[in-house]
Write a structure and sequence with these properties.
Elements (H helix, E strand, L loop, with lengths): L1 H29 L7 H8 L3 H7 L3 H25 L7 H20 L1 H13 L5 H4 L4 H15 L9 H22 L5 H14 L7
Helix pairs in contact: 1-2, 4-5, 5-8, 5-10, 6-9, 8-9, 9-10
Amino acid sequence: METKINNRTKEQGAETKKRLFECAENLFQQYDYKDVSVERITKAAGVTKGTFYVHFDSKDALYIALFSTYIESMDMDYTAFLDNLAPDLSAADTLMIFVGEIVDIMLDKVGYDNLRTIYKLQLTNALDMHTITGYGRKVYKLFNDILDLGIQWGEFKTSLPLEILTKHFVAEIRGLTYEWCIRYPDFNLKEQVQEHFRLLLYGITSKTS
């Protein structure tokens, strides 16, 4: 009997957490981050603030958890996108098409407001954001794989270890995304990403020099 009660309690807890998650997601889609309070979330979910803090340490922590699920979904989409590209594409062309897809998803599915909030939380809080910013993300492994193929095929020449080279490309897109956030809307993210990645790929040294 005790086991059944404990299992039911766990199920109810999971259902409550899911309801909080879904209500918060709905509110964040409708309102600016600063306008969504814990009280607003709990009211929508029909629970007390005390119940909220059983499942989440703060509104920030809930938001990071929510955004992390988006990240996991996007990384799966990136993998599927690359799998559907023509197999005879050069590594350089694959990389340029890939970064274009990343920017399209950031613009169309993530959006400026969400990215701005993530940067603010990253800079001002001590929250665990490794699922979002860590180099263990699937999307960074995809960068690594494309660059590795380019090196194996003789397209790319570098004295840097592959891991360091990958981090340079990741840092580039991160930096440009941050630049977009601070210069929005007077910054064309896709145009700038394509321009900077061409520079990374082809360099500025003349072939005749």
